[in-house]
Design a protein that fits this description.
Elements (H helix, E strand, L loop, with lengths): L1 H8 L6 E7 L1 H6 L1 E12 L7 E9 L2 E9 L2 E8 L3 E8 L11 E12 L8 E4 L14 E7 L6 E3 L2 E9 H6 L1 E6 L5 E6 L8 E4 L16 E8 L6 H11 L1
Parallel strand pairs: 1-9, 11-15
Antiparallel strand pairs: 2-7, 3-4, 3-6, 4-5, 8-9, 10-11, 12-13, 14-15
Length: about 240
């Protein structure tokens, strides 16, 4: 009996999950988003709309007597949304709460997207979901969904991108400037021959590692060599002379 009462007292309203679409840049730099959330809360004057009802055994639970046969009566529990607590029920058409037991409330929340958060991560506000008679409010959960970035991919703590270099760059070396996802410049340099789709690693230019300030993964740069569509006979001769 005691365990049953505790379970009833600890009933919660359902958790509410809200999707938030964010960019890779927002996960890279971190950002705070101000959001408005509308929920159901108990009427301020709810206590004025309660009346004594000995048949109410708890929120939503009423006991009724059911006759099985002459001289035989059984006590049964039934659902009754008007029961608000043990021994109390809701007055219908109560003037103090014309909208019923609950009413809408708009609240302001700040969703803190931390540096290094990932697709699917959640940000939880405990007991901010709808209120209901005899229930603990559930949690409001924001789940992050990353929008694809046109230049960068994410692989755990690392970031991936591709740059195109000329055949001349591939043979003699190059120095290229990449604009990172947050707008800062990263210089990629190579002084010797590049093979097709070679990957250069730029240490410390990947995603921030959540919970470890100042720590980042790496930036992996794939080199795509752009070959000329055609060469002249003179160019062929020069290539043969240079490479023999």
């Amino acid at each position: 009996m005691g365990g049953g009462r505790r379970a009833q007292q600890e009933q919660r309203t359902p958790d509410v999950e809200v999707p938030i679409r964010v960019t890779l840049k927002q996960m890279f730099t971190g950002e705070q988003l101000d959001v408005e959330y509308i929920r159901q809360v108990m009427c301020v004057e709810a206590s004025s709309c309660e009346k004594t009802d000995k048949d109410c055994q708890g929120p939503g639970v009423k006991v009724r007597m059911q006759q099985l046969a002459p001289g035989f009566v059984q006590q049964v529990q039934v659902n009754d949304p008007n029961c608000v607590a043990r021994g109390k029920s809701w007055k219908k058409k109560c003037k103090q709460c014309p909208k019923g037991m609950t009413e809408e409330e708009e609240i302001q929340l700040t969703v803190d997207i931390q540096q290094g958060m990932s697709h699917g991560d959640t940000i939880k506000f405990e007991q901010v979901a709808d209120e209901a008679v005899g229930h603990i409010p559930g949690d409001l959960i924001f789940r992050l969904y990353q929008i694809d970035d046109k230049s960068f991919l994410r692989d755990g703590h690392n970031m991936l991108t591709t740059i195109t270099i000329s055949l001349l760059d591939a043979l003699v070396g190059f120095s290229k400037v990449i604009e990172h996802v947050d707008g800062h410049n990263v210089v990629v340099t190579k002084s010797n021959v590049t093979y097709a789709y070679e990957v250069l690693t730029v240490i410390g230019e990947g995603m921030p590692i959540k919970g470890k300030p100042g720590k980042k993964g790496n930036l992996l740069v794939t080199l795509d060599i752009e070959f000329p569509k055609s060469v002249t006979e003179e160019q062929k001769a020069l290539f043969k002379q240079a490479l023999n």
